[in-house]
Write a structure and sequence with these properties.
binds S-adenosylmethionine
Amino acid sequence: MSTALCDPRLGSAASLVRQGAVFADIGTDHAYLPLFLLESGRITRALCTDITDGPLASARAHASGSPVRSRMEFIKTDGLDGLSSRGLTDIAICGMGGELIADILSRAPFVRDANIRLILQPMTRQEHLRRYLAREGFAITDECYSESDGKYYLTLAAHFTGEVRELTVEQATVGLVPVPPSCVAYRGYLMRKRQALSRAVEGKRRGGEDVSEPSAALLAIEHILNNG
Ligand SMILES: C[S@@+](CC[C@H](N)C(=O)[O-])C[C@H]1O[C@@H](n2cnc3c(N)ncnc32)[C@H](O)[C@@H]1O
C-alpha cells in the first residue's frame, strides 16, 4: 500500500504514467509523484531531478523512510540536461509555468521520440504550451483536469509525431482532446479562465489595445460552458 502523498493534482499526473515506465520527474521538489508511482507499483525506478539543492534535499528527506528509496536517484540538473542517455520512456514536468516547460523541452532534442511520453502540468500559460507542442510536432493525446484546495489544474500527455500544426486561439484555449463538459474540474478550470480573460479584455479595452484574441478565447469557453 502506498504511503506517499498524492493529491488529485499529482494523481492526475500519475494516472498518465505508463505501467513499467522508465520514469523521470523534472523539478521534483518533494518527490511525492515518484514516491507514489514507486510505492503503488506503477514504475520500478525513478530519476528525481531539480535545479536547486533545497528541493532535492526535501525530496531525499521525504524518500528517506520509504521502502522504495533504493530505487530512486536524485540528480541536480537544469531541465532535461544530461538525461538523454538514460532510456527514459515517461517524463513528468509538473508545477511549472507553461513557458518554462516549453523552454525545457526545446533544449532537449532527445524528447523528439515517439516512444517518449511527456506528462506536463503547466500552472500558467497553458495556451502557450499547447501552441508550442503543436508547432514543434508533438501530439497531445490526453488532457486531464483536477481540483486541489479550490484550484484547478490541467495535465497533458504528449509525444512526438513530427506532424506540425498551428493552433487557433480556440484550440489553444480549450484544447483538442474532448473532455466531457460534465467534468466538474473542467468546468471549474474554464470558469477561472473566463474570469482571468474577462479581466484581460477589460484592461486591454481601457488601454485601447486589440482584444480580438482574448475575446475569441472567451467565446470558446462560453460555448463549452453553455452547451455542457
Ligand atoms: C512548484 S515546484 C513543483 C514540484 C512538483 N513537480 C509538483 O508539481 O508538485 C517547481 C520545482 O521546479 C524546480 N525547477 C524550476 N526550474 C527548473 C528547471 N529548469 N529544471 C529543473 N527543475 C526546475 C524548482 O526548483 C521547484 O522545486
